[in-house]
Amino acid sequence: MNHLSLIIKREYLNKVRxxxxxxxxxxxxxxMVGIFSLVGYLSQLNNDNIRIISVLDESGLFxxxxxxxxxxxxxxxxxxxxxxxxxxxxxxxxxxxLFIPKxxxxxxLSEAITFYxxxxxxxxxxxxxxxxxxxxxxxxKLGEAGIDAARIKELRLxxxxxxxxxRGQETSKLGSVVKLVFGGVAGYLLFMFIIIYGNMIMRSVIxxxxxxxxxxxxxxxxxxxLLLGKIFGTTLAGITQFLAWVILLGIFSVLISxxxxxxxxxxxxxxxxxxxxxxxGGFEEILRNVFMEVNNMPIANLVVMFLFFFVGGYLLxxxxxxxxxxxxxxxxxxxxxxxxxxxxxxxxxxxxFFTVIDNPxxxxxxxxxxxxxxxxxxxxxxxxxxxxxxxxILSLVxxxxxxxxxxxxxxxxxxxxxxxxxxxxxxxxxxxxIKY
Length: 436
What we know:
By secondary structure, the chain is mainly alpha-helical. It has two domains: 50-152, 3-Layer(aba) Sandwich (D-Maltodextrin-Binding Protein, domain 2), CATH 3.40.190; 175-265 and 297-435, no CATH class. The chain is built from 17 helices and six strands.
């Protein structure tokens, strides 16, 4: 075990003292904050633009129907024909021209209205314009039929069924979304951590192999200890860098907001604006439901299991990356081996988003939450929906047992592969190494 601790210390110090590691530790969060700040700045510029739409209404049915908003103005044209209206709108560099022709029957309007613009108009703006026209046209049609449109609108009832468990715990429609977000974030973090630091372990093995340093080390250390030392040392370096990123992201965000007056989180897309308008003052109710769902979730259980599954999943995949590094001579030779490793993780994310959300306790969800290569993602997505503790523990036992078995197999590949040079190994040859 003394050798193991020395290897872990050596790997950790080699990583954190590396110039590229130090530069990227400080540069990565600065780039991220810079990108978000740039997006925020560009969004502010975009939101400051006022779009003007000219309206030529030959039917006379839509006078004063189009209301101006903060970023959208309507300019009604009169005493001009369509050709002149186009010229006026284009000369004024307006956003577009809405042409409503005079028709004999109101039904003809659905196919007769045209919106002219320099480029393709915003989907949101077109939806707003069409909604105004549809409301007016439908009101006219109901009036012709002797029906009071305003009265019908008053009589419409919206059904909002309450949700409650058999044990009396109140839930909401947002519950599944909140729970899915947790699983999605957990899966994304694990996926990125594996890709970034798994590749770091693989490159470390390749570098030592090509520099022949490994031949000296392997003479006094067992391959299993050397492999574990590399995995644990690189993992600690990754955790150090991750924590530094979190701290620096917060510091850089505050500094950029204070110096340039840009709030990276204040960006609001047209889709978000549409959602805010659609809730029509019910945003507080949505927030209340979100907090209620968060309070109903087993937070302590989620945090503890997130740590265990995250660590177990990373160690499992990291051992495979180390084995790949030992089997090849350069990074270009790793491509044929990396995809089969990442496929189970991609499958886990797919199963989580498309199966767990629909039926978290179904057969497919349960099976994939026990398979060690997919359980770190799928089980974390299932836990918010209520998974018995024994199932979580069983999944963890299978995961760490598989990690131990994978390290044992990887060490066998490592023992032979680190001394092999100048030859691309095939899957058949690697299988022979395992049997040695």
